[in-house]
Structure formats: C-alpha cells, structure tokens
Amino acid sequence: MRHKILFCGYREWALEIHDFILNRYKDQVDIELIKTQDEFEDSIKKSNPSLVFFIGWSWIIDKSIVNKYKCICLHPSPLPKYRGGSPIQHQIIHGEKESGVTLFIMNEFIDKGPILWQESFSLDGDLNDIFNRIIEKGKEGVSEIIRLKLNGEALEGKLQNDNESTYFQRRTPDQSEIKLLDLSENTAEEIHNKIRSLQDPYPNAFILCKDGTKLFLQKSKVEEIK
User: Fold this and answer.
1) What is the pTM assigned to this prediction?
2) pLDDT at 111
3) Which of 4, 220, 9, 222 is closest to 134 using CA atoms?
4) Which of 72, 141, 186, 226 is deepest in the core (most CB within 10 A)?
C-alpha cells in the first residue's frame, strides 16, 4: 500500500520544496498539496496520511490532529532557540549570523516537539538569498524524512532542551517603523539588519514622514567612515 503524504504550505518558498519533493517521490508516494485551512480540514477527514508536513504554514493545528497523525513542521531556526512567530526576522534583527532549518514532530505546544532533522545555514545577504538557502535545506530534510519512512524506520526524534529555548511573538506591521530615536540609539549595522529582514514579502521597513506618508526602505548598505 502506497503512503499518503499531505504537504501543507502556501508560501512561494514552501511551494518550491513541494515541487521538488513531488518530482522526486511521485512514483513512490501519493502527495497532496494543501494551501488553505479549509482545504486541510476537508482533506484530513477523507484521508489517512502516513505523514503530514507543514512547510510555511500559518494556522494553528488542533492537538487532536497532531496526536493522531505524524505531523512534521519546518521551522527556520536552530530550535529550541527562536520558537514562535517571525523567526527569520527576529534572528536577523538580533544580529545572528547563522540560523538553521529544523524539522520536528509537532505536539500540542508551539515549536516544542522532538527534532527529526536540523542543519545550519548562513544569514548573510538579502532575504531572497536566505530563503534560497532555506529551500535547499528544506529539500534535503524533507527528502531524508520520507526516505526513512519508506525504509520503515521509526520517526521518533530528539527531545528539545527547554532550558536553552527562547520564544518570540509574531511581528506586526507597525513594528517595521524606523524612528529618529532608532537612528540615534542603533548602529548602521543594526538598522541595516532591520531593513533587510523586512524585505518583500514582509511589511517593509518604513519612515513615517510629516505629511502622514510612509517612506519604505527595501534595501540598504553599510559603509565604514574612513
């Protein structure tokens, strides 16, 4: 009997991982792409998936689902650090130089499940460069988990160390503002990190001008004064 896999994700970078996985495993497993919460709720009632991947997904999954099925989430941080929302933005803004792609077994708690696969990647460059690295690492990690499943190996994972954990809330658009006080209290590198962490598709960094308009900042460069 062929394995059924649900691939839940709608973001552009997540769909690139899906397309790679579909092409690689289409002759071995049945993969269904789920892009919305309604699609997921409809599909989970009709199918009995062997694995459910959540890659670039925003909605909370009920604990009755994660307790019944093997649900695996991709989180772009070196868990247990940077649990919660907007992990890439928070890492860049906090001056991190390196991150990680983590695939973990979901449970009823946010980003706390056992880790199945984790590899590091650089946070250098524009946001597009960073997402390209996440895509490549995501392809590797999801492929490895499917390979293990096809080989009949147990997917148990390694428990996270809560003593090493950090948690951040999802950022809101108003937090993208750069104020005069920020310019006087932060270095050019810190302002640059905020700008590049908020490149498209996220709410871009902006300066609120005197006439109520917003000046959006999509790209910046830091130079030393000689």
Assistant:
1) 0.94
2) 97
3) 9
4) 72
* Phi, then psi, of 74 in degrees rounded to 5: -95, 125
Q: Is it true that the peptide bond before 78 is cis, omega within 30 degrees of 0?
A: no
Look at residue 225 in the predicted model and tell me its pLDDT. Answer: 81
DSSP string, 38-86: HHHHHHHHH---SEEEEES--SPPPHHHHHHS-EEEEESS-TTTTEES-
How many whole angstroms from its chain centre is CA 146?
A: 19
Regarding whether 112 and 127 lie in a shared domain, the answer is: yes
- Contact between 222 and 192 under an 8 Å Cβ cutoff? The reply is yes
β-strands 29-34, 3-8 pairing: parallel
Residue 101's closest CA among 115, 112, 114, 90?
115
pLDDT at 199: 97
- What gap in Å lies between CA 115 and CA 112, rounded to an integer? 9
Residue numbers in the chain where pLDDT is lower than 70: none
Provide the domain count of the chain. Answer: 2
Residue 48 lies in a domain: yes
Domain boundary (168, 193, 208) is at 168
**Is position 99 within any domain?**
yes
For 204-214, how does the pLDDT look when each residue is reduced to its tens digit (9 = 90+)?
Answer: 999 999 888 99
